[in-house]
Write a structure and sequence with these properties.
The protein is mainly alpha-helical. It has one domain. The chain is built from seven helices and no strands. The N and C termini lie far apart (92 Å). The model has no long low-confidence stretch (mean pLDDT 83).
Length: 224
């Protein structure tokens, strides 16, 4: 009876240590794709949210009215930055002291904190992609080394070095490296893509924060 050297045959007949490595890498690959799908959906929602907010903000609608609308519900991204700035603005002018000293700096601070939180949300779980992308090939190589060592031990025990004896064990061991690359390559590609996307959205948030800070600064000068 000949050995099954198909991919599935090699996987199911793999030695337990190599099999554990391959199962772990396949689990990481599934995790990577779950993160990729989630991030695609998240970034698309965030872009649409920014577009809707900018359309409302620059439509000529009163910022007071826009604040009342947005503050009544949970906000994220650009809307959260706007609400945080407006909350600090109103807290300063509606207090009895009506203190505007340092208001500009406080507004910029709360917007920076809001942007940092948004970037943290966008970057969540990207470290998993980076880890799988960098460590996946080495974990696969570990499975290959373990498989080859076991194959050589079997060859020494059977004292048979024919290709029909050696080939299945070597192919089984190399399959671990292949699975490691299958997990690592998409993880690396999408990590780079998502990092670039986070940077673009962060720059968009910072651009809005600068523009809104300038608008509030003029209002402060007028009221001062």
């Amino acid at each position: 009876m000949t050995d099954d050297v198909s991919l599935f045959g090699l996987f199911w007949k793999a030695r337990w240590e190599v099999w554990l490595v391959m199962v772990g890498l396949m689990a990481c690959s599934v995790w990577v794709w779950a993160i990729v799908i989630d991030k695609f959906l998240m970034y698309a929602r965030t872009r649409r949210s920014m577009d809707r907010f900018e359309q409302a903000f620059w439509s000529g609608q009163s910022i007071e009215e826009l604040y009342r609308t947005l503050s009544a519900k949970p906000t994220q991204s650009m809307a959260a930055c706007f609400v945080a700035a407006m909350r600090e603005w109103k807290r300063s002018f509606e207090s009895q002291s009506r203190s505007v000293a340092g208001l500009q700096a406080r507004i910029e601070k709360v917007m920076n904190v809001s942007i940092a939180r948004e970037v943290e949300r966008l970057e969540r779980r990207l470290l998993v992609l980076a880890t799988v992308g960098s460590a996946g090939p080495f974990v696969g190589l570990l499975g290959t080394v373990l498989g080859i060592m076991t194959s050589f031990q079997s060859i020494a025990a059977s004292k048979n070095t024919s290709l029909s004896v050696v080939a299945p064990g070597i192919a089984e061991a190399l399959l671990a490296t292949a699975i490691g690359l299958i997990a690592a390559i998409p993880a690396t590609i999408f990590y780079n893509k998502f990092t670039s996307e986070v940077n673009r959205q962060a720059q968009r948030l910072e651009g809005f924060a600068d523009e809104f800070s300038a608008i509030l600064s003029r209002q402060i000068d007028e009221r001062g």
